[in-house]
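Please fill in the sequence for the structure shown.

STRUCTURE ENCODING:
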């Protein structure tokens, strides 16, 4: 129950961050950095009387229905929920905090912070096996009929949206939008990896019993022990392998430093761990 509440809160935080980054930084500057929100900015230029959040909501629902008709119910509750929640938040922001002009004069700073905040929100959604829907659905439809990779299809859709933005808002805004699309990809990947990253640790020490006890009892983690022998001495040794969260690794490193300062340790970043004690399969 606690896990479900946590997941639900993370969904709402991710959706809120995506909406805030777009509404306060990208939308006022007409930076249509791909996605359904970028398409809505272009449409809003021709239909200024319609609220931006309302346009995004209409597009989201339309694409969800189109995806359901053409490729079936491939999107779960979380994605449907976020696809509706994000434009609703934007619509509410338009009502309670209308913006008549950009917050700052520096366009590049606003592009960076808008993409950064929105990307963190999207990364949280992706880590919860959700997404904001939108152009993801278009990419899946393209794959269904033309067998173009979903990643390439998504890039194609975003590129067409930036072309439309260039036509409507001018070359400068179009280039900023293209830069935003590129930044989205890098930042989302970086944040998702940062959320899921773990440490694989190999330890060789004559005080292996103490280290194993610390890992299993103090950290509550498992470990695998290999028998090995030194190339020079031929002496048989134990090699302890364990996978830890970053904060757990810091505790283990401090313990080993006090217990055996001469221990041999190697550390590798693991981008995803599935199974007991980590992310479920």
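FILLED IN BY: designer on duty
SEQUENCE:
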């Amino acid at each position: 129950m606690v896990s479900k509440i946590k997941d639900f809160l993370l969904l709402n935080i991710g959706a809120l961050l995506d909406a805030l980054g777009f509404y306060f930084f990208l939308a006022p500057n007409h930076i249509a950095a791909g996605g359904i929100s970028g398409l809505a900015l272009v449409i809003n230029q021709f239909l200024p009387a319609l609220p931006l959040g309302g346009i995004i909501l209409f597009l989201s629902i339309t694409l969800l229905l189109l995806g359901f008709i053409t490729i079936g119910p491939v999107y779960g509750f979380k994605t449907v929920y976020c696809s509706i929640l994000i434009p609703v938040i934007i619509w509410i922001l338009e009502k309670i905090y209308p913006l008549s002009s950009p917050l700052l004069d520096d366009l590049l700073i606003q592009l960076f912070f808008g993409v950064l905040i929105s990307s963190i929100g999207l990364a949280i959604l992706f880590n919860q096996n959700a997404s904001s829907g939108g152009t993801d659905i278009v990419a899946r439809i393209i794959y269904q009929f033309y067998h173009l990779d979903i990643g390439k299809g998504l890039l194609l859709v975003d590129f067409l949206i930036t072309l439309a933005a260039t036509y409507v808002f001018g070359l400068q805004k179009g280039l900023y939008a293209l830069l935003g699309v590129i930044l989205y990809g890098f930042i989302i990947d970086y944040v998702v990896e940062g959320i899921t990253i773990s440490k694989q640790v190999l330890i060789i020490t004559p005080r292996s019993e103490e280290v194993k006890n610390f890992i299993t009892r103090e950290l509550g983690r498992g470990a695998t022990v290999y028998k090995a022998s030194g190339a020079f001495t031929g002496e048989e040794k134990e090699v302890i392998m364990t996978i830890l969260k970053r904060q757990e690794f810091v505790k283990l490193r401090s313990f080993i430093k006090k217990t055996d300062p001469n221990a041999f340790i190697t550390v590798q970043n693991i981008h995803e761990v599935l199974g007991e004690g980590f992310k479920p399969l």
